[in-house]
Amino acid sequence: xxxxxxxxxxxxGYLCQAANDSLTSQDREAIANWLTVQPWVTGHxxxxxxxxxxxx
Length: 56
Description:
Blueprint: E1 2-7, E2 11-16, H1 25-37
Antiparallel strand pairs: 1-2
């Protein structure tokens, strides 16, 4: 997976598959679980899956 985005007071951006494929709900769940256990992450919010090229 690749992350594209920026940071101000918080990080925001899109996670994308490196192989021109779409993320799945299982990928989204794995990302949420990973973020939960990171000591430097004080909170997170994942939006619903959407198409980074064409939008929601």
